[in-house]
Amino acid sequence: MKRRNFLLLGSMLGVSPYLHAKPSSSFERSFKKVERTIAAVQEHMFPAGSKIPSAQSMNTLQFLFDTVNHKSYDKDIRKFVIEGAEELIEREKGLFSSMNTQQKEKALRTYEESNYGSNWLSRIMTLTMEGIFSDPVYGSNKKEAGWKALNAYGGMPRPKTRYIEL
Amino acid sequence: MTSRMYDVVVIGSGASGGAVAHTLTHAGYKVAVLEKGRLIKREEFTKDELAYCRRDIVTPNLFDEYHVIEEKVEGKWEGTPTYDSGWSFWNGNVVGGSSNFMSGMLHRMHPDDFRLKSKYGEIKGANVVDWPISYDELEPYYLKAEELVGISGKYEKHPFEPPRSTADFTQPPTQENAVVKLLDKSCENLNIKSLVTPRSVLSQDKGDRKACYYSNFCGSYGCSSGAKGSSREALLMPALATGNLTLMSNTYVKSLHTSKKEAVDYAVVVNTLTGKEEHIYANLFVVAAQAHESARLLLNSSNTLHPNGLANSSGELGKNLIFSAGGSGQGELHADDLKEIKFEELMQTGLFVNRSILDWYFVDHWWDGTFKGGSVEFMFEHQNIISRAGKNNEEEGKLVWGTALGEKLTERFMKQKSIRFEIFNDWLPNDNCFVSLDKTHKDKYGMPVGKLRVEAHPQDLKVGKYIAKKCEKVLEEMGAQNVYSSVSSSPPQNLIAGGCRFGDDPKTSVLNKHCQAHEVPNLFVADASFMPTGGSVPYTWTIYANAFRVADHIVKVLKEKQI
Predict the structure, then answer these.
(1) pLDDT digits (tens, 9 = 90+) for B501-543
(2) Would the pLDDT of A1 be above 60?
(3) Which ipTM score applies to this complex?
(4) Could you give the number of structural domains in chain B?
(5) Domain range spanning residue A68?
(6) Domain termination site, one of B490, B507, B535
(7) 128-147 in A: which are within 8 Å (CB) of B?
(8) Residue B383 contacts A, CB cutoff 8 Å
(9) Strand bridging mode B277-287 / B76-81
């Protein structure tokens, strides 16, 4: 399966105008419009009170933005991150981030039933896990809390610089 | 446009390019190694999982440089650019190539691998031929690679262990996790012989290369002590010290130019940072760009003298590309029912498993039949944290999240450890596995990209599945839970050979037995392209050994002024 087809399969909105926009500053603008929703999804997936650190305490939204915004990141997936969030907002009539936990669970499990939703949720989870379990230099695995929770630690030598700054 | 002149130009700095450069510079020749990627020094490598394992910092961005992969879909060949599939066929495009990132589990090929057709006869649908050289001719170079690159191990007699001219390895094996006690005992119970895996990782200091420090993150990462026997550490650094090597990183070779049929004059190169084009002249050229890219470069060097690609009057260039067939399997060793060893010992990080099985390398069984089999390596599941977490976030097709995810991950990381096996068997050369030039797709330098058709022979799957069943029994005997294996015809993109077969007949091969182009005497191909069949072990030791052999011949050619 070709990746673009795979990513777009089953989208209700189809190809958004964002597809034709220029990177970086326009990405930042688009991201601003969906960041509350993405953060709410991350917090639902990685809540407080779990055996692994919560999304909120690890500042995973910033990690996700820095990663996806970087020029080396796959441009198709960059678009997909925004579009999938727009789709969720549309499906839930803009109410997702203000829902209670049970409502969020129902909304995300329903979204997951479509290939498109399932792919997008999987992508958000991956981008969140990458933050929590990568080297603390990336800003999200604060005080190695992610590693401590699993008793699994990165090897030596550790990076002093993020690859996105090289 | 500028130009420079050398005795020898080597294109590619991986295992074979490094071996050639090492030999020639030590023999006093002025050599330029042209490498597309950048130089990452020992002290710059880190164990940054995000950077090295999840982003393309050591391989090109697939939107800039890519391949087209042709697979059969509903009976028709369908080509998909790798920027579309995400299935990269690049392997470590930095100085030292993919040898920087190998796990280093190495074996010599068996003497019968050099005469597979004579030993097993024709296989329908497969283009199996004997090699034009024997194991005996390569043995001294296997030994040279072992000593110079630094392969640690312990020789044990076994019917399928190739003979060696010295009693044992110069370096003892790297330290091993206690799980080997359980593995050895389990194999013994099943009447299987487990052997110590030779590994191109130093267990003791060697010059300025320090012994392994057991970082727990070896394969897929560069080595920070110099223990891993990469081309960069073991060969290029000593070659640079001779003063005879010019290492040109960030240098992409577009084509080789011939103004008369029998000789390459210069390489047309582009500096990947400045975009500046240059001609690099030499008396002799050695292509060592990794099999699929070496064939592509020669195809991209066609002109009126060589209309079908450089040194391709046989029409064999790019044909009979091979990978390594086989597959892998895995099982979980749990804290609550672990045998023979303590759980704390199992969980000790960094130490190697270092075990192989060669019992099924050649199968001759009253019921199963007589056929060429393969080898098996055992190792722990890769210890990368993000990827292990990512593999454990699903149940019955649904993502696991919330507190259930925390439970699942802590259980997975702290109460069990997974042990794996990998099977290596022959990828039979066949008419539907080759590299050609794509007619429409070009890379960012304007050169046609390689199009790889990648069909496997049905026998490859049969052999892989036969061995996988045996290995599953080993894991079960160890007490592993949830044992599974996966053998597929999908090619492993890091184990590529063939495409420029060597042979005695110029009508059926691209190279002669010295890996010199039949029709262009100052052109050699030193990487795994030469291999008509691949053996049933990882290629790297054979690549090192053969490149040392080729380099010795090049020295002879240069000394005797044969070109």
Answers:
(1) 999 999 999 999 999 999 999 999 999 999 999 999 999 999 9
(2) no
(3) 0.93
(4) 2
(5) 22-165
(6) B490
(7) 129-130, 133-135, 137-138, 146-147
(8) yes
(9) unpaired
